[in-house]
UniProtKB/TrEMBL annotation:
Family: Belongs to the glycosyl hydrolase 20 family.
Domain Glycoside hydrolase family 20 catalytic: from-to ranges: 131-313, 322-470
Family annotation (InterPro entries): Beta_hexosaminidase_sua/sub, GH, Glyco_hydro_20_cat, Hex-like_dom2, HEX_bac_N
Lineage start: Bacteria, Bacillati, Actinomycetota, Actinomycetes, Micrococcales
Biased composition (Low complexity): 1-13
Gene3D superfamilies from the UniProt entry: Chitobiase/beta-hexosaminidase domain 2-like, Glycosidases
Protein name: beta-N-acetylhexosaminidase
Active site: 312
């Protein structure tokens, strides 16, 4: 018997051995209208079947064999659901709307062809997430992606039970969100991208559209305005706020390896080197800028988190860096939002104690990165784990891949993306200290939605399992061999949804 194609693997799966539910044109999801609409979309993508009228009690009654009941019954854990499939019908019950949505995703993954046509095997599932925060990050600063492209990525991530989209909105190469308080940012600093490609930006209405689209799929948006480094673009718009670039020998080596020109004050930057830019830390005008930017961003963002970056500030004096992130995190907290920073900011003694740290070091920490990550926990906050050599989706999947980079310990295979355990990464940071897992996709080499798919899939599914499913060792299905068998069966669903995934030869794909 082939494994059920369930990713991320649910908390509890029991195949009852009964006859499957046969799907046909009579199949009619009933109950919650939003969930019924989503299931109908997924059934058609997977099978080509056009099912009956959606939701409610209107229309002709469905036969018992084709009924799929979808409903919310409060009382369970947040985002949890129960699912039952038998020959006479199926039921998905969510503890809340998000849980029902995730149960629908699981039900769609179960659809498989057989001699009857299309069936769903008889099964009973109870499921709930391991971590509250399950994120993906899309860098729209190195290369810009329009609203339809980001919507597509939201759909793909939500289908794997991710509930947060971290948008990296600014970097040395461009500023991607219009703000009324600082209009020169998009007027003067949004037109460039890596390699001289066109830039772009979101209007406030477009950003609101993305927030609403994500919310309809039970995802929050976590916007990032990276500072005090990664701010060369700010200097194009407001030169009085930015220091001149600090060009080191290491940076010149990167320029030599990847092309382009070294950064120059007042000129758009389209290279790959990092760490050369900084805001003017000791100028009060800088903090007026921070307050304007995050104040307007907070008004646009209903989610609880604002990300202020804080990584790779190689051109900033450490004492100045510490002073900056302390003040900037307090500004964000005073807006009623929880600050998020990359783990480097953990070294700052005055960092706001509620600040969440995002760890991007390796699965085996080096260079004191574990110390700075533990500092967040010592203040009573939590961390998000994004180990670069496991869940950075922009790493090459193979050495000969056209897309991606290799700086995070070489290419990252699907197996390496899967075989890590969040609670084992940093000594002293256990289950309760981890807010969740996030899989970033930086876009230095990524230009199109097809490029996004090719780098993200199937490794994004491995990250989804680390974020949602029971811990390694807590389930006999939380193994590489189990995962590679289960993800293989998702090829048909992904094809139907138009996902142009990398058919990695580590997986024996079932199409």
């Amino acid at each position: 018997m082939s494994p059920l194609s369930l990713v991320p693997i649910p908390s509890s799966v029991h195949e009852t051995g009964g006859a499957p539910l046969v799907l046909d044109e009579r199949t009619r999801p009933t109950g919650d209208a939003d969930a019924a609409r989503e299931l109908t979309r997924l059934i058609e993508a997977r099978t080509g079947l056009r099912t009956r009228e959606l939701g409610g009690d209107g229309g002709a009654p469905a036969t018992a064999a084709s009924a799929i009941d979808l409903r919310v019954e409060p009382g369970g854990a947040a985002e949890s659901y129960r699912l039952r499939v038998a020959e006479d019908g199926a039921t998905v019950v969510g503890a809340d709307a998000a849980g029902l949505f995730y149960g629908v995703q699981t039900l769609a993954q179960l659809i498989e062809p057989d001699t009857e046509g299309w069936v769903i095997p008889a099964v009973e599932i109870e499921d709930a997430p391991r971590f509250a925060y399950r994120g993906v990050m899309l860098d729209v600063a190195r290369h810009f992606f329009d609203v339809p492209a980001v919507r597509g990525y939201i759909d793909r991530a939500a289908g794997l039970k991710f509930n947060a989209l971290h948008l990296h909105l600014t970097d040395d190469q461009g500023w991607r969100l219009h703000l009324d308080s600082r209009p020169a940012l998009t007027e003067r600093a949004s037109g460039s991208s890596v390699g001289g490609d066109p830039g772009g930006f979101y209007t406030k209405d477009e950003y609101r559209d993305l927030v609403a689209y994500a919310a309809a799929r039970h995802m929050i948006v976590v916007p990032e305005i990276d500072m005090p480094g990664h701010t060369h673009a700010v200097g194009l718009a407001y030169p009085e706020l930015a220091e001149d670039p600090v060009v080191t020998e290491h940076m010149l080596e990167i320029v030599s390896d990847y092309g382009g020109e070294p950064p120059a004050a007042g000129e758009a930057y389209d290279g790959l080197a990092v760490g050369f830019s900084s805001l003017r830390i000791n100028d009060e005008a800088t903090y007026d800028f921070v307050a304007d930017v995050f104040g307007e961003l907070a008004s646009l963002t209903p989610g609880p988190y604002l990300h202020l970056g804080g990584d790779e500030c190689l051109g900033t004096d450490p004492a100045d860096f510490a002073a900056f992130v302390a003040r900037a995190s307090a500004i964000v907290a005073d807006l009623g939002k929880t600050p998020v920073t990359w783990h480097e900011a953990g070294a700052a003694g005055g960092l706001h104690p509620d600040t969440v740290g995002q760890y991007w070091g390796g699965v085996t920490p080096t260079d004191g990165m574990d110390d700075t990550a533990r500092a967040f926990v010592s203040r009573g906050a939590q961390v998000i784990l994004s180990p670069a050599d496991a869940v950075y989706l922009d790493m090459k999947p193979r050495a000969d891949s056209d897309l991606g980079l290799t700086w995070a310990n070489g290419p990252t295979s699907v197996r390496r993306a899967y075989e890590w355990e969040p609670a084992d990464v940093i000594d002293g940071i256990g289950e309760a200290d981890i807010l969740g897992v996030e899989a970033p996709l930086w876009t230095e080499t990524v230009r199109t939605p097809a490029d996004i798919d090719a780098l993200a899939f199937p490794r994004i599914a491995a990250a989804a399992e680390a974020a949602w499913s029971p811990a390694t060792g807590a389930s006999d299905q939380r193994t590489w061999e189990s995962f590679r068998g289960r993800v293989a069966g998702l090829a048909g669903l992904w094809d139907g949804l138009g996902i142009r995934f990398d058919a990695a030869d580590e997986i024996d794909w079932v199409r």
